[in-house]
Amino acid sequence: MLKLRDIHKTYVGKVVFEGLNWHIRPGDRIGLCGPNGSGKSTLLRIIAGLVEPERGECILAQGVSIGYLPQDGLHAAGKTVFQEVLESCTEILAMERELEKLEGELSATSGEIAEQRLERYGLLQELYRQKGGYALRSRVEAVLQ
Asked: Is the pTM of this model over 0.70?
């Protein structure tokens, strides 16, 4: 699912990671613990693709996407934790919006245009299913419990 290989990262001359290797398999549940400044947030940012390591690579299995909710992201947003986590799933939410838009357009069109939209709807619906869209909200609830 996710593999970190030979990750090296420094900040202001301080070594944060040197030769870090980590393999997370499907079904693994991970707890990341450590004192302040030990690199927990940096590691999560590397995994999310927000920070580049100086050396090494982060390898995601095909079809895997990463959502990142920063620890300081809840202070000003005024949203529930559920909403914040859900909104980190941008790809699936974008598919939902497009599916809803296509549903509205399908009821207002006919002929070849309707066929094209119906074909797009079917393809998008299958991709949404493959990405776990139908189970997204229940998965978010399970993670937060």
From this structure: no
Distance CA 66, CA 102 (A): 26
CA-to-CA dists, residue 99 to 68, 80, 96, angstroms: 24, 25, 5
CB 39 within 8 A of CB 53: no
How far, in Å, CA of 3 to CA of 24, rounded?
6
Taking the C-alpha atoms of residue 121 and residue 103, their distance in angstroms, rounded to an integer, is 8
| CA gap 102, 39 in Å, rounded | 44
> Is the separation of the CB atoms in 56 and 63 below 8 Å?
no
Q: Is 37:88 a contact under the CB 8 Å cutoff?
A: no
**List of the chain residues with pLDDT < 70:** 71-77
End-to-end CA distance of the chain: 23
The residue type at 55: R
The token pair at 23 is 């393999």
If we measure between CA atoms, which residue out of 73, 56, 47, 49 comes closest to residue 19? Answer: 56
Token pair of 58 as six digits: 């982060």
pLDDT at 113: 92
